[in-house]
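Progress against Task 2.4 (sequence-to-structure conversion) is shown through the following example record, which the project officer requested during the mid-term review.
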Amino acid sequence: MDDKPCEPRKRVRHRTLLASVAGCAVLGGVLVLLPWGREEPPAPDPAGRALAAVTSGVPAALPDLEALAEERERHLRKHPKDARAWAVLGSARVEQGLRLADPAYWSRAEKALRTSLKVRPKGNAPALRGLAVLANARRDYAEARTWGEAARKLDPKRWTTYPPLIEASTGLGDHEETAKLLERLAGLRDEPAVMARAAAVYRDRGWREDAAAKLADAVSAAGEPAERAAYLERAGQLAWERGDREDALRHFQEAVRIDPDQRAAQAGQGRALAALGRMTEALSAYRVALAKQPRPEYALELGELYESLGLRQAAGVQYGLLRERVRLATAHGADEELVLGRFEADHGNARAAVRRLRAEWKRQPSTAVADALGWALHRAGRSEEALPFAERATEGTRGGGVRSALYVFHRGMIERELERYGAARRHLREALQINPYFCPLRVPRAKAALARLGEPSVQAGPGSS
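Structure tokens generated for the chain above:
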């Protein structure tokens, strides 16, 4: 008997079996995603959460970071040749140093990251990325670019390589390169960390609405509370920069509610509360922020708030803390010349500020350094030299696209000193329009300078308005 007629039936049975297996595979995949028929996988432990965050370049909760660091250290005592574990440990220590404003963590981070490179000298992109992030934390943007480019050469399609490079290019004042890097990053990934990075670049270009929209998207899509709180803090900062005290305060308060260790938001509350006239609450918020994250910038802000209230002795205590924190940071390889130069220009030795900031300008000519150097030159009695730096900090065509009330105030005061009264009047008004509450010490000075300038005379012509 001929068996050939049976072959089609066999093929049919074979296809049916394959379809059944495929169907079961698809169903199994669905069941993994849905809670039907089995329990959901357990949530990751604190170390697991921090590991996911650190390796993805997103903010992590402080307790989780400590758990991860301790877990990696235990592991490395048994497995000292694990290059990846050393890189993870180093990256966790960098983040701890940032969150706690404790530069001592950065020395520990560097040791771990360099050990990773020693164990695995070639092809070690995670350690190179970690060193780029560390250099940015220390404000050494040239070194951050060097490490970041080395990581990109090894792993050009890894999206986490690009945020440290973008930060480094911004710090070096290379806005064209920043734009290229952001375009590359956006082409590789679209997630909250990328949205937040794009928002920072948009903010620096003066695109406030675009930056706010990106941050709103990042907040909505964020996963862990620490990540969401970090993006809320940045949204609050944007609201503050446009003078919206109430909206800024709401964002800062929500960030602290979600993550009590979000000290940048705590300092932001102090800023917004002071602008609302709620001084007791403002002082308390600043003190809480400084107790857990003693950044020199917060000490300067609180000192100036005290000074605006006539409490010079209390202000002096904060200025002393600023100097102490700068010394500590310098001892651990950090560059705090920008904040120290700003402080010296207004509250110390303006000539010393010029020397510091001129050297900083040679190292990393960013918009922030241009503003600070211009102001220091003005305070040192060299306003003619100051003006080009003030113009660079405030004109979008020269890289200064960010809409900063402080920068525009500085330019207006320099122009007033140079008897360019029309331009001075225009820029002082603009500063108060950008943010009428930008600084408790400088807002009254801007208003007083405008009052002395008065209205332009009819005979002066349109150029003096």
